[in-house]
Task: inverse folding
């Protein structure tokens, strides 16, 4: 910016607690908005799947996706999709409760489920090697919406860079 400071370029009204305090949203309206949000993300010319942890949020998204997966979103659900079965994916340590819960959810939703396991060592190997960056040498951490998948390594970085503020865009 011209003054060298960070400025928010857009302010969403719902981020202000006072703007949303006491607002009552009918359950039906909330459900319809949620389903519409999932529905509009399913437009694709290639098969897609859902990442399923077995928790409430991923199970709800997967349930909506399963409901809409048999029809082509692009033509207003008028024609049948040419990949009629939704695939679900889960990843975790062998024997983890998340994998078991994802399998239960997938069975209930009728998805073609794929569970993948990794060892603790493989998990550590997947993390970036922050030891190459000198301790407490980073001024700030910037994460854009395109890199939100890197959030999992943020606690590791923050242990080596405790003074660095984190700035993120909204997803």
Result:
């Amino acid at each position: 910016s011209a003054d060298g400071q960070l400025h928010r370029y857009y302010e969403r009204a719902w981020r202000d607690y006072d703007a949303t305090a006491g607002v009552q949203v009918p359950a039906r309206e909330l459900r319809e908005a949620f389903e519409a949000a999932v529905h509009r993300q399913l437009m694709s010319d290639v098969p897609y799947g859902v990442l399923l942890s077995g928790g409430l949020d991923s199970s709800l998204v997967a349930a909506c996706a399963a409901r809409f997966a048999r029809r082509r979103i692009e033509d207003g659900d008028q024609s049948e999709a040419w990949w009629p079965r939704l695939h679900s994916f889960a990843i975790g340590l062998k024997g983890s409760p998340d994998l078991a819960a994802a399998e239960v959810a997938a069975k209930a939703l009728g998805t073609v489920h794929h569970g993948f396991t990794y060892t603790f060592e493989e998990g550590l190997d997947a993390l970036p090697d922050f030891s190459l960056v000198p301790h407490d040498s980073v001024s700030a951490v910037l994460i854009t919406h395109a890199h939100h998948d890197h959030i999992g390594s943020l606690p590791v970085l923050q242990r080596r860079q405790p003074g660095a503020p984190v700035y993120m865009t909204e997803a």
The longest strand covers residues 87-93. Residues 27-40 form the longest helix (14 residues).
